[in-house]
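[agent] plan:
  1. take the single chain provided in the ticket
  2. run structure prediction with default settings
  3. attach structure tokens to the ticket
  4. add a short note for the reviewer (M.T.)
[agent] executing step 1
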Amino acid sequence: MAEVYLEKTSQQQQLKVSGTHIVAIPKEDCCESIYVAVCTRATCPKREGFILKDDAKNYLYMGNCNVFATMAGISMDCENMLNFVNGVMERAWEDVVNNGIHCAQQIARNYIGWWETCSTPYLFQWCTQYIFQGCTVMVGWDASGLPYIYDINRDGVQHKTKSEVCDGFVNGSGSEKVYEYFRDCNVEVQSSEELLVSVERALLYASLFDEKSGGDLRVFNVKKEGVRVVYQQSVLKALFEHYNALASYLRKSLFFLFHTDHYKYTHEHNLYVDQKFREIFPEDYVRNVVLKIGKQYTVRLVHFKEPVDELYEQLRIENRDRNLSPQVEAQMEQLGLEQFQKDGVLFGMPTQMLVGGLLDVLSV
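[agent] step 2 finished; step 3 output follows
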């Protein structure tokens, strides 16, 4: 995301809320990988939903002990904790390193306890609060070759390993959306490849409906010998790839494009847009999610309570006399709502063709 859109103080830059993370282990008979899916959006906790970064690094790989960890919640809390854990593991004996996944989670648990009591000089410089406002999921393989996932926060630790079913943890702001997707789609995953596709789609679904999730979608494959990226796409590119699988979930949504020359992305503009949508569609509007802040347009996916077919036709009829930009006339309609007070806002019905147009024609 371009720096022109980052409205924040130096203190706010440190206080970022990380988006959605999914960690999954394939079932026992095909358990050679652990998939870790993260989005790269970071938002401001004091300005609800305001995007600080769409390219945040919400994870840390500890190469010395082959432990991969995600960050959710207040990123500064998580970064300090994971850097501390990594520093300890880099100085550890070989036996500790070989069992790194078990030792790293214990160090993280101790760190949170130290943080909340401020009982060590090392932590005192950061201990400006007594509640640790972050959580992490650590994944790796122990000395016996078993995969483990640890979900760690101030309330305690949960862990999972290989079993007869695919299993894992989800955390972050979009976790409920991930669970909602898996409940609705009712997919029976039979292989590691099927699990990978399901994880990609679940993270995409969360990014379409949760304003704090988004940016790039990345999936890492953590194996016994290391980690590699197996999937990395922007939300719009991922939607284009997986459109047929998610099309049914977009029946109550419309795309709206706000030109950045007239509608610069700021916290105040975020509040303004939400307020105006509530005024224009008082009975139907639910929320809007920023999918991309591009050079030319801010792309928002606007969600309504009911299917939008009739609403879309009504908006088209009311605005049919407005002139369209030749660049987008084949893809979008122009909405000249006087409530927005400035140049018309483009809108369109979600289709795979439109998503492709947003990628290719509008260069968002």
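[agent] step 4 note for reviewer: Residues 251-360 form one domain.
[agent] ticket updated
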